[in-house]
Design brief:
It contains 16 helices and 16 strands. It has an eight-stranded mixed β-sheet, with helices on both faces. A five-stranded mixed β-sheet has the order 13-12-14-15-16, sandwiched between helices. Strands 2-4-3 form a three-stranded antiparallel β-sheet. It is 37% helix and 20% strand. It has helices at 15-32, 46-52, 58-63, 88-97, 146-162, 178-192, 201-209, 223-227, 238-254, 298-301, 316-321, 327-330, 345-358, 372-382, 392-397, 418-424; strands at 36-37, 43-45, 66-68, 80-83, 107-115, 127-136, 168-174, 259-260, 272-280, 288-294, 309-315, 336-340, 363-365, 386-390, 399-404, 410-414. It is elongated. By secondary structure, it is an alpha+beta fold. The protein binds adenosine monophosphate (AMP).
Length: 426
């Protein structure tokens, strides 16, 4: 038997109703902050990710689904292509490619699948979904302002509140900019020199090539060493410090609680200044619901103009897991099951179904070969609220027997009043 590939899964009804509920809430909230939807391709040129996310990150060095495409001619070498492991790089590429700044498009959001070859476990998949947003643009659009960071964070708090997720924690850090990062990297390298030999192979490599990435290490034995390392917070230059203070000031003013965590560096190289994560206690080991940060140099590093930005990605799989709502409560059941009674009634039933559906009634259509008992059984199994009996007598009289499947009450309703009657009972 052929099964879904390890780390991928089918999302089935009624759970899909919960996914749609989450996506609708996100679209609603994002609209109020003037974000617009963008949809970028699922695969991109590999170097888009190696140049932005970074060669030394776990994502690029271990987790990407990469292959060489066929060249046009048989002798021609193909292009290296990768399934997107995240969506910020794709959005910034599109921002540059279409010169979106010329159209004043500075706030974009996306919803879609991402792919990473991680070890699958609860809350961690190889195909997973992210809902993300990017505020990017020329500094004249306010893209560099700490007000933008605070706005994005406040928007996230609003979305989580709207979804009824209350027990979240916002962890906040500043990872500085190239100016302070150079001094900090030196200090880190020096601190790592005497201890690196005792660390895991990844950290030994990181200690030389990209010391900040040591903070991504999950190996338990390395943690006491990492605890002793200097933190970026001690090395921020004056502009970075002022920016970070301003972000915190606005968050406090708008009533969004946060905690500072100077170990938080996020596993992607493009971040500068503000970095953050929202965690949720009930999720267990994979407790990060979402993460993000500022990336002031990303556009330029991909060949675009100076366009500071800040964005985030919500792990939709984990967000859905942390919802209190049950899928059953959100999923829409049929309002009415139409039970055609006897030969020739499929036609009449189809006409009635068409009329009712035009009034936004959810209709499930039975079959004239079914007996009434079978139709009622089907209706109950689907959770329909009403059964509508369509027989020759009803068609002649222009009034139909409408049975409330909860109370058992049955009344005769004229054709023209059916939709209103069914809807008024909801
Ligand atoms: P990142 O793109 O690594 O900053 O991750 C942002 C969010 O995406 C995380 O906080 C998780 O909620 C979610 N996420 C990342 N990787 C996975 C995965 N393999 N499976 C499920 N969710 C993930």
């Amino acid at each position: 038997m052929i099964k879904a590939i390890r780390g991928t899964r089918d999302l089935l009804p009624p759970d899909t109703a919960l996914w749609n509920f989450v996506e609708a809430a996100a679209r609603d909230v994002f609209r109020a902050y003037n974000f617009h939807e963008i949809r970028t391709p699922i695969f991109e040129e590999t170097q888009l990710f190696s140049r932005s996310v970074g060669e030394d990150t776990d994502i690029v060095s271990k987790e990407m689904y990469t292959w060489e495409d066929r060249g046009r001619a048989q002798s021609e070498k193909g292009q290296s292509i990768t399934l997107r492991p995240e969506n910020t790089a794709g959005v910034v590429r599109a921002y540059i490619e279409h010169k979106l700044w010329e159209r004043g498009l500075n706030k974009l959001y996306y919803i879609g699948p991402q792919f990473r070859r991680e070890r699958p476990q609860k809350g961690r998949y190889r195909q997973f979904f992210q809902i993300g947003a990017e505020a990017i643009g020329p500094p004249t659009a306010g893209s560099e302002s700490p007000a933008r960071d605070a706005e994005v964070l406040e928007m996230l708090a609003t979305l989580l509140d709207r979804l009824g997720i209350t027990d979240w924690t916002l962890e906040l850090n500043s990872v500085g900019c190239p100016n302070d990062r150079a001094t900090y990297n030196e200090a880190l390298k020096n601190a790592l020199k005497p201890v690196a030999a005792k660390m895991c192979a990844d950290c030994q490599r990181r200690a030389v090539t990209n010391p900040l990435r040591v903070f991504d290490c999950k190996v338990p034995e390395d943690q006491p060493i990492i605890e002793t390392l200097p933190r970026i917070s001690q090395y921020l230059d004056e502009p970075c410090r002022r920016h970070f203070d301003a972000v915190q000031g606005i968050l406090t003013a708008v009533g969004v609680p946060f905690t500072l965590n100077d170990r938080l560096v996020r596993g992607l190289d493009y971040y500068t200044r503000t970095a953050f994560e929202f965690t949720h206690g009930a999720l267990g080991a994979q407790n990060a619901i979402l993460g993000g940060g500022r990336y002031d140099g990303l556009s330029e590093s991909l060949g675009g103009p100076h366009a500071p930005g800040i964005g985030f990605a919500i792990g939709e799989d984990r967000l859905v897991m942390s919802l209190k709502e049950s899928a059953d409560a959100v999923a829409r059941k049929p309002d009415v099951y139409i039970a055609p009674l006897g030969p020739g009634m499929d036609r009449e039933s189809a006409r009635l179904a068409r009329e009712l559906r035009r009034h936004d009634v959810v209709v499930e259509l039975g079959d004239e070969t079914f007996r009434l008992k079978k139709s009622f059984e089907n209706a109950s199994k689907m959770g329909a609220r009403f059964a509508l009996i369509v027989g020759e007598n009803e068609v002649k009289a222009g009034a139909f027997a409408l049975k409330n499947l909860e109370s058992g009450e049955q009344i005769s309703v004229p054709r023209a009043e059916l939709a209103a009657k069914i809807q008024s009972a909801s």
